[in-house]
Amino acid sequence: MNPRVSGLKSFENTDPLVKYTIEHSIRQTDVQKKLSEETLKMKMGAMLGAPEVLQLNQNLIRAIGGKKVLDVGVFTGASTLSAALALPEDGEVHALDTSMEFTDIGKRYWEEAGVAHKVHLHIDPASETLQRLIDAGQRETFDFAFIDADKENYDNYYEQCLVLIKSGGIIAFDNTLQSGRVIDAEANRPNIVAIRKLNEKLRDDSRINISFLKIGDGLTLCFKK
Ligand SMILES: C[S@@+](CC[C@H](N)C(=O)[O-])C[C@H]1O[C@@H](n2cnc3c(N)ncnc32)[C@H](O)[C@@H]1O
Fold this sequence. Notes:
Rossmann fold; 8 helices; 7 strands; 40% helix; binds S-adenosylmethionine
């Protein structure tokens, strides 16, 4: 098997069945479409969250009646925007990134979509922001976390999010297939090794129930017991 055939976001995947599922499910607002178009023109545009993943996040947030979301890794703001659109008027997305250059792009679209009042942007290394939220007494107050920042720190973010998420809440990890490289024995870059290790840990972690989905570049859903 060529691992590059699997583990691709829909906007990079030529599989006709993937195309079919996208054509029969993706519902983006005009603002979401514009944000995706602008982002995909950028040099690092492929970091954009896959629409099928972001829409599943939205549906999960709605299904659990989520009010507070952690978005770890904002980039140009697509995951923050989709979460904010799924939340009620008094909902909060805490958006964590180190880059003002990227998140300034997102700010324009959050404003245009009329959801900027729900977004709390934290510009700092995500582990510092998560620790600040824990120290500020926000333990077990969040409903949903989307982890999509630096892969080597995913396990740290997991442990911190487990503290911040309520029982019954969900932690979603993006890119858990690493474009198929998780099963390529020759692939040993630190990000791939970190994700492989995390996948093994999550498989055996009795604090959560788990679903590992082969959509986008792999999405692992952890349901906190
Ligand atoms: C894959 S992109 C996020 C994509 C975004 N979730 C979306 O839906 O388009 C990863 C982001 O993580 C950010 N990042 C990398 N290391 C970080 C860190 N230590 N703390 C916070 N953010 C970080 C990068 O600046 C980048 O914007």
